[in-house]
Amino acid sequence: MTELTVQIKPHLWFTLYTLMRLGATKTAIKISTTQLSEEMGGSQQSASRHLQLLESENMIERSISPEGSKIKITGHGQAELDLVLNELKWYLEGKEAQTIEFEGEVISGLFEGAYYISKEGYHNQIVDHLGFEPFPGTLNVRINEEDFDRRRKLERGEYIRLEGFKDGERSFGAAHCFPCMVNDELEGALIVAERSIHDYGVMEIISPYYLRRKLELADGDKVKVSFLPLRRSDS
Amino acid sequence: MTELTVQIKPHLWFTLYTLMRLGATKTAIKISTTQLSEEMGGSQQSASRHLQLLESENMIERSISPEGSKIKITGHGQAELDLVLNELKWYLEGKEAQTIEFEGEVISGLFEGAYYISKEGYHNQIVDHLGFEPFPGTLNVRINEEDFDRRRKLERGEYIRLEGFKDGERSFGAAHCFPCMVNDELEGALIVAERSIHDYGVMEIISPYYLRRKLELADGDKVKVSFLPLRRSDS
DNA sequence: ATTACTAACTTACGAGTAG
DNA sequence: TCTACTCGTAAGTTAGTAA
């Protein structure tokens, strides 16, 4: 396990699940602790405490007012729910978690990728955790705006984490990797910085191959990038 | 809510979920309480207690031996997991729970259906809970053996319950109803007796219509029966 | 090895109530 | 009304241990 997953406790998960069933994933919902307690079959006090705890773990966001709080499940919270969804699907429906696919077009990067990947700090971790020697550069793929939500969902899921490190004066942040297949042919991984709000319009793909040449890609060419979600590794 | 659902407690659900992730849905698994406790992050004693409780609620079956118990999740247990799966799908993937469809062929019943449905005890409940006046008879549909598993899954899900009753000397058992569409055209419901192992090969469909005539069906004709799973009604 | 009992401990719950 | 505090009680957990 690369991620330090603070396992959410069952009864808190259940509260989160109840909030989901009340619609708090899509929009903020207006609900009082009393209403929530009735929904869950518990006391107002318990509901209140659960909300405090969920908030402190960044699972929900609230705005409290005398006429009832507004509650919305955060990305972290949804990730927690997604995780269970994927596990249930896997075991009950016996599906390989279905791939999430993106169609995009190749664009030129600023050759920044090459710089980062050449850093030993990242390079060695990629070899260790992804199991390939990365080509010193990234393939940049522009995706459509209507796919941003699916990308967010992907990035909420499990990832392989590259630790941040210091190299002389500069310090490099941690990054998340999501293994993928490019054009159903070649392996690679989407890499995103852990901190910083990144541009959801562009995917940076690392790979053991020089994808542009191997797949004969030029700027503007269509590519397919498909991910099969990682599952939280047991123990 | 027609069913008296004994809500399983979150920490027990979590144990069930863990057993699922260890593969106890498909086959019995061999695991000791110590191993299980390590898997869940708790003590051996808690694992032991949880297993006892799950067993007493018919969620799992066990055979205990000094070299580690064999554990398998029962149909009831799977139903509990399925339920959460469906809810998560509904809210996170925004899908109408996808319909479960069966292709089968019309066969002749023994005109027993007519007898049962004419009984006031059932009749009135059908009107109340399903919202239609049932035609006094059932359409019997034979389905293929490879669909039995899907039927089992359907029947593990939520249902509308018709209470049993006494009519003079005879007593009639409770029944479960699963609303459906026949040939995507006409509403109806699969009806199965609550107790008694029934024949998974034949579906008995009740409907407000005389389906044989309305759809011009003769013995051996193909029909499609589609169900969209009920969701546990909130509160 | 196992499972599971009892007893001590720790956590979660909920009634009362303040802000 | 709200949320959330205190605090006594109930429930869940775990250490020790028996079978």
In short:
Chain A has 235 residues and is α+β, with helices and mostly antiparallel strands. The first copy, chain A, has helices at residues 10-21, 33-40, 44-56, 75-92, 112-118, 120-130, 148-156, 211-214; strands at residues 29-31, 60-63, 69-73, 100-107, 139-143, 160-162, 165-167, 170-172, 175-182, 186-193, 202-206, 222-227. The model of chain A is unreliable at 1-5 (pLDDT under 50).
What does this molecule look like?
Two copies of one chain form a homodimer. Chain A is built from eight helices and twelve strands. Chain A is of the alpha+beta class. Chain A folds into two domains: 10-92, Arc Repressor Mutant, subunit A; 100-227, Beta Barrel (Elongation Factor Tu (Ef-tu), domain 3), CATH 2.40.30.30. In chain A, strands 4-5-11-10-9-12 form a six-stranded antiparallel beta barrel. Chain A is elongated, with a radius of gyration of 20 Å. The model of chain A is unreliable at 1-5 (pLDDT under 50). The A-B interface holds A 7, 10-11, 13-14, 17, 20-21, 23, 25, 38-39, 41, 78, 81-82, 84-85, 87-89, 91-93, 234-235 and B 7, 10-11, 13-14, 17, 20-21, 23, 25, 38-39, 41, 78, 81-82, 84-85, 87-89, 91-93, 234-235. Chain A binds a DNA duplex (19 and 19 nucleotides) through residues 11, 32-34, 42-46, 48-49, 51-52, 64-69.
Keywords:
alpha+beta, 2 domains, 235 residues, 6-stranded antiparallel barrel, DNA-binding, homodimer, 35% helix, 3-stranded antiparallel sheet, disordered N terminus, 26% strand, Arc Repressor Mutant, subunit A, Elongation Factor Tu (Ef-tu), domain 3
